[in-house]
């Protein structure tokens, strides 16, 4: 179970870290006014400052349990978390294996795994959809619009 | 009425069997690239360009512009059905279109969107017909300070209307600006915020951010809530298409206002994206149903769609009359003009009357063809909503992944897209508004460039934003829009402090 308070604090911390990164890397680009006008780092620097200050405020509000969502105590229940992971984890694995096996194999495997394993669809139906997906991708992207999708290291090893 | 005579002559060129056939082909291809995220009108137009080398220039431009109309219409389809905007300009359509479709009314949402889009396009073409020469002068009056003022106006009309916590809005907006700054800075040429990652030099594409924030983010919210789409009747409901179109005149004021905003933003190079956001913001503020915006209000679809198409259409005018392409698509088309041996610019209207007026006439006919075709496809697209969620969810993930990859053939974009998905979920969950974030990603860079160029011109004096009537009016209008809600809120607080507490506002 994740409390709303914890989630608020984590989100504010993430935005704050992003702000710090923006500030640090914008200093490399010079800040202020030079012969070339407003320097390249000025705007990112200012936005970084605003992000950090705003994040600190949001973090304080979240920690004290104030703000627009004050009534909601629990953000994510265990069963909700399970459903979220059920969607996100396979998707992340799908993206992770693309460099290895390529878009076509990865998408077919992903569709099959997501449809057949939880037994939501019959295996046959899952197989058909899993086969149709890369085929459609190939026809539309590679043939019609000449956008080549990644084939992956595996295909390269076989010399495609 | 010389223009009218030329236009009639143009119709005799445009309304011929071969040209009508070209329009149908162009529109159908356009709808296809518009519906597929990651592919857009620029892809389609560049692929068709080689085919046009052997054609008459008029036939060629008719084919390409029809494809552009089709893509503009197609871009709204995925926004409404799956919350994935195919083009930047259809982001604002998701705010009310997607809730309406989820509520079991996809046919109504699509028909409303297409109907109002057609109206916007029509107003844009009429404007081109009658004001071609005057409009060219307005566009010429635009320098960096005016550009900045227009972007400022777009931001001002949109920021602070979502009902989110103000500091969360500010943080979302600032993050958007920072993301827009990643990559090569167009003013100084230096590389910014890449943190040593070479692939980031090209910047973070809008498409990558939006597919993650809206597509994947919405998917995560949906599984968390155990989303079940309302049963959509399995019968193809043609009557509902016409009923929705028949209800459009009820939104007459919104239609006219949005068309005016769209035309203005199309001619001044604010562009369709800024136009649709601004139109939505203003409609929310002034509509009687403003409080219900974001929950599937028809007017919330009418406003951005009308403005988007009015701007998209009238944006072709600067390309023809000045030789300044207003968008990527227009730039590719202009390349085509040069290959066909035509010189875009003021002389085009004098030297190539047949071409110019044939094109303008084809805009009328082409848009009618596009609306007819696209309305025919409504039941087909609405039927997509009947596919079970368990099947459609992985397919949406694949569409987002392939879309993010095909923007610039980069694997990093796919990973970033997934990251944006998590951010989208977190933000939505904690009521950080997504709309200001996206708006800043899309036009933040341009606004910053315009501001810095203006500062270069004035050697650092802010006085340049009050230097002439045009820019002063724009800046003052922006400030009014920004401060008006604040003032109203203070007045409301003073009058009755307890009534507003029970009001529930959807964060967009």
Automatic annotation (TrEMBL), chain A:
This is Tripartite tricarboxylate transporter TctB. The chain crosses the membrane at residues 7-27, 42-63, 84-117, 123-141. It comes from the Bacteria. The keyword Kinase does not apply. Residues 9-150 form the DUF1468 domain. It comes from Bradyrhizobium retamae. InterPro entries: DUF1468. Keywords: Membrane, Transmembrane, Transmembrane helix.
UniProtKB/TrEMBL annotation, chain B:
PANTHER family: BLR4373 PROTEIN (PTHR35342:SF1), TRICARBOXYLIC TRANSPORT PROTEIN (PTHR35342). Coiled coil: none annotated. It comes from Bradyrhizobium retamae. InterPro entries: DUF112_TM. Pfam families: TctA (PF01970). Keywords: Membrane, Transmembrane, Transmembrane helix. The chain crosses the membrane at residues 20-40, 109-136, 148-165, 170-191, 203-223, 322-343, 355-376, 383-405, 462-488. Residues 20-439 form the DUF112 domain. This is Tricarboxylate transporter.
């Amino acid at each position: 179970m994740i409390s709303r308070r914890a989630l608020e604090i984590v989100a504010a911390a993430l935005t704050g870290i992003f702000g710090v990164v923006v500030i640090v890397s914008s200093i490399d680009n010079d800040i202020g006014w030079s012969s070339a006008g407003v320097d390249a780092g000025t705007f990112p620097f200012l936005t970084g400052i605003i992000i950090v200050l705003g994040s600190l405020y949001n973090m304080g509000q979240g920690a004290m349990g104030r703000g627009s969502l004050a009534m909601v105590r629990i953000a994510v229940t265990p069963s909700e978390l399970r459903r979220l992971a059920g969607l996100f984890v396979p998707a992340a694995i799908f993206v992770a294996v693309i460099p290895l096996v390529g878009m076509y194999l990865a998408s077919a495997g992903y569709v099959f795994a997501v449809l057949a394993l939880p037994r939501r669809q019959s295996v046959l139906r899952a197989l058909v959809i899993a086969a149709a997906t890369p085929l459609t991708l190939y026809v539309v992207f590679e043939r019609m619009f000449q956008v080549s999708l990644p084939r992956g290291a595996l295909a390269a090893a076989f010399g495609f | 009425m010389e223009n009218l005579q030329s236009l009639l002559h143009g119709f005799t060129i445009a309304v011929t069997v071969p040209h009508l056939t070209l329009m149908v082909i162009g529109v159908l291809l356009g709808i296809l690239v518009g519906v597929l995220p990651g592919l857009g009108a620029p892809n389609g137009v560049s692929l068709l360009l080689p085919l046009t080398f052997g054609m008459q220039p008029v036939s060629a431009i008719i084919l390409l512009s029809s494809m552009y109309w089709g893509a503009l219409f197609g871009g709204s389809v995925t926004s409404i059905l799956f919350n994935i905007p195919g083009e930047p300009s259809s982001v604002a359509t998701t705010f009310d279109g997607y809730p309406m479709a989820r509520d079991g009314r996809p046919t109504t949402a699509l028909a409303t969107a297409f109907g109002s889009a057609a109206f916007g396009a029509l107003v844009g073409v009429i404007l081109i017909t009658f004001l071609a020469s005057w409009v060219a002068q307005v566009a010429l009056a635009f320098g960096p300070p005016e550009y900045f003022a227009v972007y400022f106006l777009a931001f001002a009309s949109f920021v602070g209307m979502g009902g989110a916590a103000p500091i969360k809005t500010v943080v979302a907006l600032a993050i958007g600006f920072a993301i827009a700054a990643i990559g090569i800075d167009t003013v100084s040429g230096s590389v910014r915020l890449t943190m040593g990652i070479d692939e980031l030099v090209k910047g973070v594409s809008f498409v990558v951010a939006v597919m993650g924030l809206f597509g994947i983010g919405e998917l995560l919210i949906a599984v968390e809530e155990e989303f079940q789409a309302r049963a959509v009747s399995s019968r193809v409901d043609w009557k509902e298409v016409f009923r929705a179109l028949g209800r459009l005149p009820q939104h007459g004021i919104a239609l006219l206002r949005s068309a005016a905003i769209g035309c203005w933003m199309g001619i001044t190079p604010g562009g369709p994206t800024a136009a649709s956001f601004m139109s939505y913001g203003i409609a929310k503020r002034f509509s009687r149903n403003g409080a219900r915006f974001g929950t599937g209000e028809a007017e919330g679809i009418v406003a951005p769609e009308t403005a988007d198409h009015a701007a998209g259409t009238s944006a072709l005018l600067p390309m023809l009359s000045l030789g300044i392409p207003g968008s990527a698509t227009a730039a590719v088309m202009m390349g085509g003009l040069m290959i066909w041996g035509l010189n875009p610019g003021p002389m085009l209207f004098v030297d190539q009357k047949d071409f110019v007026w044939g094109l303008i006439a084809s805009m009328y006919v082409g848009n009618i063809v596009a609306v007819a075709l696209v309305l025919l496809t409504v039941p087909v697209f609405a039927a997509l909503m009947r596919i079970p969620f368990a099947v459609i969810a992985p397919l949406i993930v694949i569409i987002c992944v392939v879309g993010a990859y095909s923007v610039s053939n980069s694997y990093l974009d796919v990973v970033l897209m997934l990251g944006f998905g998590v951010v989208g979920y977190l933000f939505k969950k904690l009521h950080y508004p997504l709309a200001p974030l996206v708006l800043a990603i899309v036009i933040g860079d341009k606004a910053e460039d315009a501001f810095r160029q203006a500062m270069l011109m004035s050697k650092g004096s802010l006085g340049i934003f009050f230097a002439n009537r045009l820019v002063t009016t724009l800046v003052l209008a922006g400030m009014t829009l920004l401060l008006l809600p604040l003032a109203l809120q203070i007045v409301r607080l003073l009058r009755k402090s307890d009534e507003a507490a029970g009001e529930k506002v959807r964060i967009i």
